[in-house]
Amino acid sequence: MKVVIVFNHPYDGSFCNAILESVTNGLTKGKHQVDLIHLDKDNFNPVMTAADLKSFRDKMPTDPKVIEYSNRIKNADHLIFIFPIWWELMPAMTKGFVDKVIFPGLAYDYTNAGNTRMKPLWNNVKGITMITTMNTPDYLYGLLFGNAIKKAMIVGTFWKIGFKNRKWISYNQVKQVSMEKRKKWLIKLEHKFASF
Fold first, then answer.
1. For 86, 109, 153, 173, which has the most beta carbons within 10 A of its beta carbon?
2. Helices 92-101 + 64-74 axis angle, to 10
3. Three-state secondary structure call for residue 79
4. How deeply is 100 buried, as exposed, middle or buried, from its count of CB atoms within 10 A (0-12, 13-18, 19+)?
């Protein structure tokens, strides 16, 4: 299986980087092919410009990175996002990736004249997994903020364009938990993706 990982965290010592390492190790042990899109190291520009909006309307992207990323994803069997939750949502680069790469004519198209129904164009992709970290307790994130990232990504993006197999793995209170618990999370994650 070919898996594309879209990763966004600027600090190499972050828990997100430890998650990336565990997921990659697991997938490698499971003999899967891993293609890493590291938005920070690629200096991906998340800003939607006037030219990008025109491209969006015309369904003809002009940003070379957008075209490159889409070509890599359309040959994948599974797509994994790894990023922190800051102020209840994703960092700017992940949001920019959603805005600029999940693009009509590339990632999806409309199935009716009113542009209200969508279908995915990344036809090889059989599933989406989103792995996030945050310091908010899970019950508070659900109760106070309505699982905002799930609504934005799992439902508002990937359900809307027609992907059926969608999963969210959330690591909460990362700063407050013990190093031992973090290590257990990472070992479990590696085992999960080794048998993916």
1. 153
2. 80
3. strand
4. buried
